[in-house]
Amino acid sequence: MLLPDSIQSLITALERLPGIGPKTASRLAFHLLRASDEVSQDLAEALANLKSRTAFCQDCFNITEAGRHLCEVCESTERDSSVICVVEEALDVLALERTHGYSGKYHVLQGVLSPIEGIGPDDLKIKPLLARIARGGVKEVILATNPSMEGDATALYLRGQLESLGVKVTRLARGLPVGGDLEYADQNTLLRALSGRQEMN
Ligand SMILES: [Zn+2]
Questions:
Q1: Cβ contact 175:190 at 8 Å
Q2: Ligand 1 centre distance from Cα of residue 37 (Å)
Q3: pLDDT digits over 114-163, tens only?
Q4: In this predicted model, what pLDDT tens digit does every residue of 40-79 receive, in sequence order?
């Protein structure tokens, strides 16, 4: 083998990450090799703590600190519990929070419907969402899945599921780049999409 095992195994591990090809993986591995001990130790520590020190909110499935039952948003008494914004990933919660234009609650699906990848409704946090709404007090559900094929299909599916529950169902306005990711949209675009949301019918 051309490379020592320790480097090769790091490259292989990095290559499994989204958006990282063999070249980037090698570049990162060699960068870490040259960098100070502190850089790699900090990274190793952060990775080791990633799973052990985080948990999912039992209400909305956003990320929270390990040992906590609810996330900050769900715990807050200042947030409007009558509006739930449904997003694909916890990163989308961060993106929407950065706009400072939303004061309702969230629900993180932890993915998106994708027949190609074999991801069906039961693989997402859809049942807990319906249960949350059935508990009452919710007036509007904003479907803020990404403006992609899967995101749109997921929104359509959810609209069907929500139909009988007597809540207003809205979808983020167009204007977000089609096929794009909420998390990469700039704050103004996201804010406009949020305030221009339209009822799905
Ligand atoms: Zn929560």
A1: no
A2: 37
A3: 988 899 999 999 999 999 999 999 999 999 999 888 999 999 999 999 99
A4: 999 999 999 888 999 999 999 999 999 999 999 999 999 9
Does this model's pTM top 0.70? My answer is yes
Q: How far is the CA of 14 from the centre of ligand 1 (A)?
A: 30
Q: Do domains 5-52 and 56-199 have the same CATH topology?
A: no
The Cα-based distances of 117 to 47, 114, 147 in angstroms read 27, 5, 18
Please identify which residue in the block is written with the tokens 């979808």.
Answer: 171
> Is the CATH code 3.40.1370.10 the one for domain 5-52?
no
The pLDDT of residue 96 is 94
| pLDDT tens, residue by residue, 74-106 | 999 999 999 999 999 999 999 999 999 999 999
Category of 85 on φ-ψ map: left (φ > 0), alpha (ψ -120 to 50) or beta: beta
The class (CATH top level) of 56-199 is alpha beta
Which two structure tokens, joined as six digits, stand for 87?
A: 């997003």
Domain range list for the chain? 5-52, 56-199
Cα 185 to Cα 168: distance, rounded to the nearest angstrom: 25
Tell me, in angstroms, the distance from the centre of ligand 1 to residue 82's CA.
Answer: 14
What is the 60 CA–ligand 1 centroid distance (Å)?
4
**Alpha-carbon distances of 147 from 84, 176, 201, rounded to whole Å:** 18, 7, 17
- What is the helix (H) or strand (E) element at residue 5, kind and residue range? helix 5-15
